[in-house]
Amino acid sequence: MIEADLAVVGISELATPEGRTARTGSDLARLRTVRDAAVACRNGRIVFVGTEREYREAVALIPGGRALDALGATVLPGFVDAHTHLPFAGWRESEFNERLCGATYSQIAARGGGILSTVAATRAASLDELTRLTRERLDAMLLLGTTLAEAKSGYGLSTEAEIKQLEAVRSGAAGHPVDVVPTFLGAHTVPKERRENRSAYVDEIVNDMLPEIGRRKLASYADAFVDEHAFSKDEARRVLQAAARAGLGVRLHADQLADDGGALLAAELHAASADHLEYVSDAGIDALARAGTAAVLLPAATFFLMSSVKPPARRLIEAGVPVAIATDFNPGTCPTEAMGAVLEFACLSLGMSIDEAIAAATLNAAYALGRAADTGSIEVGKRADLVIHAVPNRYHMVYRFGVRRVRTVIAAGQVVVEDGTLRPSA
């Protein structure tokens, strides 16, 4: 008999991608589905997946173990949010309303708004405040079914402030059920006070920030924004090569506002991911496919920005690029922690199927963070990250749009959300 300390029974439908690497092409839509299913866990790992009848024959709960009744709900892997700007201070809701009333981003930025207002607020915030904000946002993600998330800096834009953001990620994530992958984004934009000598700021990133962050192991990855108003390909290449020397993986904000060659650079550097990609070229798509670099698409951001140009999900999938989806949670262009909403936008805006979106939000997103061998699917041996959604099957995840029905979240084999509420131990 297989021994378990936690089981989930009474599952109407279990749906999951399978494997320890990304799904590509037509395989992206290939999920394993089990009706009348059960899952069992032991010591935080999955030890059984199958029908409830098979479970009754093969699994025994250890003394003190728990069988949790899903009450005819649907079970999916925990969501993986592979692109967030989590540790910041300074919401920008008034600027959002200004844009709705016709103001342009350039007009808002010219009076000191935009990213610069969040930079000022983040610099002014204490480490304790940023830690609290980070933990509150992780709580919100957990309640919405996310069990693994990336968290970028990039609103400090000085050595002291960038390190403060990453320290807030470390302290805010300590002991939290959401597993967090920290990313250094000092190359987000050039701070206002350094724009007369931008090369000196790049020098600071390369010579001061990255060596210290690498020494203190404050980040797993470094990111850079390749854009006419941010960093050139050559500047980003220099930053990311220095990041690699410091022991960090690399990823890029690429081809978001124009075809700046960001995808080509990501492929050249064998980056873990190239993110956004609204304007990616055919050559960039081919290069990403050859390199195995994940394309992390952010459909909620293009919706929030009311952009007519969408990430070319179908072209990327058909070319064999590993496609993931994520929130882009940040205060200016996508202030949401809801991965369930991202599934809806991926299907309704990008033309992805529901099964493709589920795989892109779980296993492929875990691949983009270097974690596909450990999580992102419901398979024996993997970390027990499961979400019970109060719907009869996976199609209701998008069909009944705008309604979140996360009932229970299990992270590393522990029930951390029950009846839609955080458990005190979480």
**Low-confidence regions:** none
- CATH-scheme architecture of the largest domain: Alpha-Beta Barrel
Cα distance spanning the termini? 31 Å
CATH class division of the largest domain: Alpha Beta
By CATH, the topology of the largest domain is TIM Barrel
Rg over alpha carbons: 21 Å
Percent in strands: 25-35%
- In round numbers, the mean pLDDT is 96
Derived structural class: alpha/beta
Question: Major β-sheet, in short?
Answer: 8 strands, mixed
Shape: globular
Summed up, the helix count is 16
Number of strands: 16
Structure write-up:
It contains 16 helices and 16 strands. It is globular, with a radius of gyration of 21 Å. Helices cover 35% and strands 26% of the residues. The chain is α/β, with parallel strands linked by helices and 426 residues long. It has 2 domains: 123 residues, Urease, subunit C, domain 1; 290 residues, Metal-dependent hydrolases (TIM Barrel). The model has no long low-confidence stretch (mean pLDDT 96). The strands form 2 sheets. An 8-stranded mixed β-sheet has the order 3-2-1-4-13-14-15-16, with helices on one face. The protein has an 8-stranded parallel β-sheet with strand order 5-6-7-8-9-10-11-12.
